[in-house]
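Quick one: structure for this chain?
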Amino acid sequence: MKLNVEHGRYVILGSIDGILAVLGVVIGTSHVANDPSIIINAAFGGALALALTNGVGSYLAESAVEYGKLAELEKPLLRSLACTSIERQTKRKIWSDSIFHGGASFLGSMVPILPFVILKEHMLEVSIILSILVLSVLGLYSGKLAKQNLIKHSARMVGLGIVIVIAVTSLGLEH
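Got it. Here's what it folds into:
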């Protein structure tokens, strides 16, 4: 599958979801467990659930929208477009968007988990920093897609990440 602007939307959405939702799981779990395997398992469970939810959710939403467009095309033609190349293109778009959204969610989810897999200390700190760095790169990509100021888009992504870190950390969960 070739990456296009439509896919870029789902790469950004899915990656943000994956990074920030699983970073929240990582931070929350780190407050109640010191064992990296518990944190990894909780985060991986969240990553899998999020990827499936985003993929299937995109499939359902895209199906509704794209088949609605197909129905609008059928009206003036006074015929069904079932089994035509137009319907095949519609199905390809639905599947492609769904795979990009779910896949980006899963890959983004791996960012905050990775330090717990490869490091022995400072895992939470590295997880937060790595997540913020990847959000910064996503912001640059977002700015490039929008043909707008890359730094502004990057700063907004980083700001969002920082707000999430502060919000989850401030829950006050203790050992």
